[in-house]
Design brief:
The protein is of the alpha+beta class. Among the domains are: 137 residues, Penicillin-binding protein 2a (Domain 2) (Alpha-Beta Complex), CATH 3.90.1310.10; 263 residues, 3-Layer(aba) Sandwich (Beta-lactamase), CATH 3.40.710.10. It is 37% helix and 16% strand. The chain has 21 helices and 20 strands. Strand 3 and strand 4 form a beta hairpin. Helix 5 crosses helix 6, helix 11 packs antiparallel against helix 20 and helix 13 packs across helix 16. The protein is elongated, with a radius of gyration of 44 Å.
């Protein structure tokens, strides 16, 4: 009986000790505590963890913070970008240019174009553009009915089609007057909008149209200087041209007069500064008004001065003579037999008029002998002739600031026939600008100067290349003076009293599209190339008239001397004062000393019809 009593206390003591080392869930009383509710200890533990949570892992916390920071930054940036965009849209008040698909793009006012004297040639005018968002139009036929009476460009049917398109932008009209703007606004049609824009405009109308070119509705240059200088103009910078608007107008007027008088289909004229290479005037007729470019016919858009290629006829004898003298192939006293046609390559070379005595080099130029020119060219030789023409820029496009430029048409081979025909301006087609630039080198100071349509600063150094010596150019100018001043000269009608004009006539048949030449008398190109003042050369003038018709007063002739030479005379008489050139006493010793006027020309009476 005593044994059980002694074992009982020991058993409780052992159980309690074991309970102190067992997990709470394994304790004997734990199941009862769970079923009856949380113990006081567990409640205190939960409260302590709530107030003072256990310390998290530092690396994990850093990653969470970085992610939250990046997300916050992106959200903030997006919000501020949206706010900034809206502010810009509101601040511009819709005063933006629209691209063709209706996307609004900000732009600077396009730069203006001026002539050398500050005359405004191209500028911008503010306009109001009417456009629509078809997705906002609730009733397209009704909107079209209301708008049609106010829009000249559209009728009700076309407006209905436009306003029903699946797009967000259609342009309806430009250049709205304030009255039409107000009237359309009062209609209150949803989806009809207005925006401010600018219109490229040309205050002088047709003046220098081929040089200025034109722009598209988004004011992007499409032709002329508007295209070649588009990046500069689009950046808001102005452009100053070498052109003198006054001289340009004179050339256009006098050229047009000869075209009308001789019932020609067109023509071109140019004034080039020999020293600087600046193009003072460049005219192509017919021309167009760049304010209404869409109405211009194709022939009017064609630039006869830089794109048109023509065989320039006897004006090339200026170059042939200069090359022959420069290379030593001949001299001014050398004479050539020209009484009979010269047969080369199976066909004869003839002169317009037969000369029965041997012609000197000055006579060949003054009397315009093809036979004499061909003989001189043969002595020059093909390789030398070709090399000089290349140095004069006659094998490549002119390096001038117009996109509309043509490459000359040169012979595929350079044999005896080509050497001969090129000497008097056949078999090789160039533009009027090519001719002017080459004549400038042959009659100025002997330097070929890169031509330009931009005003050159006196300090600028354009590309220059020595081609002829001063002695050569003086001799050539002296002969050219006799072409105009001598009674037998073919260019007498170019003589402007006191202004010392020297020049050379040119007449050649036009080339047929299928090859060969037109034989009709009214299918010619007539031209005249002049230098003035010839004793102190400053400017070259070239004039070309396309397909002039013979007239009764010209004795049935339509040659360079009758058609182009008179235009040059009137250009000089009217433009010289603008260019600062004053008349001189042609017989003054200081004038005569600068020229060689002792060349003997001919031994028979001149005939007016031989021009």
């Amino acid at each position: 009986m005593s044994s059980p009593a002694l074992r009982t206390p020991d058993h409780r003591t052992a159980s309690a000790g074991m309970a102190q080392h067992a997990p709470a869930a394994a304790r004997p009383g734990s199941s009862r505590e769970s079923s009856s509710g949380p113990s006081r200890g567990s409640i205190l533990t939960s409260l302590r963890n709530l107030v003072l949570p256990p310390r998290p892992d530092p690396a994990r916390s850093r990653r969470i913070a970085e992610v939250r920071l990046v997300i916050s930054a992106v959200v903030v940036l997006a919000v501020f970008s949206a706010i900034a965009t809206r502010v810009v849209m509101l601040s511009t008040n819709g005063d933006k240019a629209f691209s063709g698909n209706g996307v609004s793009v900000a732009s600077l006012p396009r730069g203006q174009i001026f002539d050398r004297n500050g005359r405004l040639l191209a500028t911008n005018l503010p306009i109001t553009v009417l456009h629509a968002d078809p997705s906002e139009i609730m009733n397209a036929p009704e909107a079209a009915r209301l708008l049609a009476p106010m829009l000249e460009r559209h009728d009700e049917a076309s407006l209905t089609r436009l306003l029903s398109k699946k797009t967000r932008y259609v342009e309806l009209d430009r250049k709205l007057t304030p009255a039409r703007h107000a009237a359309i606004l009062n209609l209150g049609i949803p989806g009809i909008h207005f925006r401010k824009s600018v219109l490229r405009t040309y205050p002088s109308g047709n003046l220098a149209a081929h040089i200025l070119g034109h722009v598209d509705p988004d004011n992007k240059g499409l032709a002329g200087m508007e295209k070649s200088m588009d990046a500069i103009l689009a950046s808001g910078k102005d452009v100053t041209l070498a052109l003198d608007g006054g001289v340009q107008a004179i050339v256009a007027r006098e050229l047009a007069a000869q075209i009308d008088t001789f019932e020609a289909i067109g023509g071109a004229g140019m004034v080039l500064d020999i020293r600087s290479g600046e193009i003072i005037a460049m005219v192509s007729l017919p021309d167009f008004n760049p304010n209404h470019y869409a109405k211009a016919i194709d022939d009017a858009r064609f630039n006869r001065a830089t794109v048109g290629l023509y065989e320039m006829g006897s004006t090339f004898k200026i170059l042939n003579t200069a090359i022959a003298l420069e290379t030593g192939a001949t001299d001014v006293n050398r004479r050539y037999e020209v009484a009979k046609p010269l047969r080369i390559g199976g066909f004869p070379i003839r002169d317009y008029k037969t000369y029965k005595w041997p012609l000197s080099v000055p006579e060949i130029l003054v009397l315009s002998s093809n036979i004499g020119s061909a003989q001189m060219a043969a002595e020059i030789g093909g390789p030398t002739q070709k090399a000089y023409l290349e140095r004069l820029g006659l094998f490549d496009r002119m390096p001038v600031e117009l996109p509309e430029r043509a490459r000359p048409l040169v012979p595929a081979q350079w044999q005896k026939t080509e050497i001969a025909t090129v000497s008097y301006g056949h078999g090789m087609s160039v533009s009027l600008l090519h001719l002017a630039s080459a004549v400038s080198a042959a009659t100025g100071d002997g330097l070929w100067v890169e031509p330009t349509l931009l005003r050159r600063d006196p300090a600028d150094q354009p590309v220059r290349a020595r081609v002829f010596s001063p002695d050569t150019t003086q001799a050539v100018r002296s002969m050219m003076r006799l072409v105009v001043a001598h009674p037998k000269g073919t260019g007498k009608l170019a003589n402007a009293a006191g202004y010392m004009v020297g020049g050379k006539t040119g007449t050649t048949e036009k080339i047929r599209p299928e090859g060969g030449y037109y034989k009709e008398r009214n299918k010619n190109i007539t031209s005249f190339a002049a230098t003035f003042p010839v004793h102190d050369p400053r400017y070259v003038i070239v004039v070309m008239v396309d397909e002039p018709k013979p007239q009764e007063f010209s004795y049935g002739r339509a040659t360079g001397g009758w058609v182009a030479a008179p235009a040059v005379r009137r250009i000089v008489e009217n433009a010289a004062p603008l260019l600062g050139i004053h008349p001189v006493d042609e017989k003054a010793p200081e004038i005569r000393r600068k020229l060689r006027l002792d060349f003997r020309i001919g031994n028979e009476e001149a005939r007016l019809a031989s021009f």
